[in-house]
Amino acid sequence: PVRRARILPAGSGTDAERAAAFIASFGARAHRRPLRDTELTAYTALFNSGRTLYTGVPALEAGIRLVVEAMLQSPYFLYRVEESGNAQGSVIPLAPFEAASRLSFTLWNTMPDDALFAAARDGSLLTAAGVRTQAARMLASPRASAVVYAFHQQLFTSEKFGAIHPSSTYFPTAPATLGQSAAREHELFLKDLFENGGSYNDVLTSNRTFVNQDLAAVYGLPGTFGTNFQSATLDPGTRRGILTQVGFLASNATAVNPDPIHRGVFISRILSCNPLSAPPANITPVPMGTGDRTNRQLVEAHTEVPDSNCISCHGLLINPYGFPFENYDATGAWRTTDNGLPVNPVSNALVNGDVIPVANAAALIDALAASPEVHACYVQRLVEFTHGRTTTTPDRAMISRLGTMSLANNLPLKDLMADLVSSPAFLNRSVEELP
Model-level pTM? Predict the structure, then answer.
């Protein structure tokens, strides 16, 4: 009864009057648009038949029950249906309530609120400017922060952080909860940047993060820390953004050694959009060291043999991105020696179409953050996430434009998202979808 009272329209009246008001109001929310006359008629007929199906139940309650059951099985509730058919050239503009749903599920992962429904009713969502106004309002909500974090969680594969378990033999002081702490740092860092106007450049280069006592020990921070997370500023010479945080470093490592191959593959494929094919099935893993060589030397000897199948990818597209991070061990802590030998983080990395020398991870990160191609790659990933599809040739101009803006204007992530959801690609569908 308490729940039913929350969805029934207030006031008195006959059962038929109250049913008509309920069907119109609840139906508009369940379908995320006003009901059509044919739907109103069909649901009214269902309401009237409810009293014959549920014995011992008051007529109003029985009818409402049947209507709710029907609405919650409707394709218009279960799917985001887009039926607009007024083609304009090669595209079909979304109808206002369709745009409202697409906008809300993209930015909030839920149905439109009353303000968005009102904007759909008054025609505000028929223009890109009106959509952007609503997007700006919605992007200020914690709901948007959660969705943007979910995107970065997928992008940086932070679900792997839970599997971080450094060897207790090699790292006896590493806490068992290092992976959970890294995941929490990852979340707090990204949400803080988004909510406070941070840009993709900040994601890559900011040395401000959040730590507890476990992470403070890894980062070598002085002072007293507890189990609660607090804001901290890291050494910019060794820590730049998300790629030098414990989560990325320790999840791309074995229990004993850093893994320059997987660190490099991630930066090359995911952050730089370099095409990388899968390795041949018969490739053997990097052998265990005998203590007389560094981790880098082992990887080089195994993957950069002249004229081998490996060197074509490892020599240009993988190792040069991974080796600069050899200063970070399997827990993500800073190191200058490996097996008693000096760490060599120097590399020649492909950035923005040119092979450039980088002295270490900080130099590589700065180069990536200054690359139009890297910013365009990020926009491409964001388009795929917000549009729910792979990008195509017509998307390239928008991706290039927004990538340039992201770099040149240090565009806040909120503004980048607002640009995406007010773009023609977002507010139209293809005529190929017409029957």
Answer: 0.92
